[in-house]
């Protein structure tokens, strides 16, 4: 019997619940154990509060994030909210800022501009709405003050800076902690949304930073091989190409910035389409042989397919050409694509065959992209780049 997987809640929903708990406690001068909030989906959800503290002029509490059955580094994290009253500039009715463990944005292209706390627009709106809703009802603390005071909400995650090291935040330009994220408030179990959202953000940052070519890698080993390869190329003599377009593209590849490298993992189709939609024209596909074979076989999601089916397809391709038919025997008892590659001595004709098929797949899926393939070896060397 298939187990029903449990949904969880985003950091944005947890921060909103903690903020609502703090503002209610401050207004009523009473401790609370739980609060209800309305998610952007329209669903009402109840959250348990912890660590309640209350003074005459401030209140704080936290919500423990429950990511459901979704693997998430923030599962179990404490999402804190502290509410105080102070003056505000720019006519703000609620001031929202980050505290310990919340990152700052340092690169353009994300949902909030550089210099701001990494609290995304929808969580900001949710927090502002629950605070304004509570303070729209008579608040003795506000009416007793002579000065124009507004609520100040500080969101923090005590171990957020440490948890952020397990994410791609620093690559996106989010420094010093985690982001407060979420569009629906709900985390779907075993979903790929967190990864694809990161890919989208990474492409947005790259575009905003002026990157013309992106290197999409299926894993850290292939990415490191590509970084080393292009770092070496940047110190090589200028290329002497016959075609102006090829010369121009090679110059671009020699000047790749950190933002140009994007780890797409298994989400090949999503990453390619994200690049095409955002106007990127030049892409380098960096992968090891097993993943490259999956791409060549037409898998937009390289985690989902059967290795044996991929080897069967490779066997058909090898059989069809006299140049490669002698390698068919290497596929008959192999269990993995890597085994085939190593048994054939990293034969260039096989590598070229699979790379060309992968390029053909990209051309069909995202026809406006110009793609080059970089094959990384299993010890981090570059076996092929064209």
How is this structure best summarized?
Helix content is 38%, strand content 19%. The protein has 386 residues and is of the alpha/beta class. The longest helix has 18 residues, at 11-28.
Write up what this structure looks like.
By secondary structure, the protein is of the alpha/beta class. It folds into 2 domains: 8-187, CbiD-like; 193-385, no CATH class. It is built from 14 helices and 16 strands. The strands form 5 sheets. The protein has a 5-stranded mixed beta sheet, covered by helices on one side. A 5-stranded mixed beta sheet has the order 13-12-14-15-16, with helices on both faces. A two-stranded antiparallel sheet has the order 1-11. Helix 1 runs parallel beside helix 2 (121-135), helix 6 (193-208) runs parallel beside helix 9 and helix 10 crosses helix 14. The longest helix has 18 residues, at 11-28. The mean pLDDT is 88.
Topology:
Blueprint lengths: L7 E2 L1 H18 L5 E5 L5 E5 L1 E5 L3 E7 L13 E9 L8 E4 L5 E2 L15 H15 L4 H4 L6 E7 L3 H5 L4 H4 L1 E2 L10 E2 L5 H16 L4 E5 L2 H14 L10 H10 L7 E3 L4 H10 L4 E6 L1 H8 L10 H14 L7 H5 L4 H7 L4 H18 L4 E7 L5 E4 L1
Parallel strand pairs: 7-9, 12-13, 12-14, 14-15
Antiparallel strand pairs: 1-11, 2-3, 4-5, 5-6, 6-9, 8-10, 15-16
Helix pairs in contact: 1-2, 6-9, 10-14
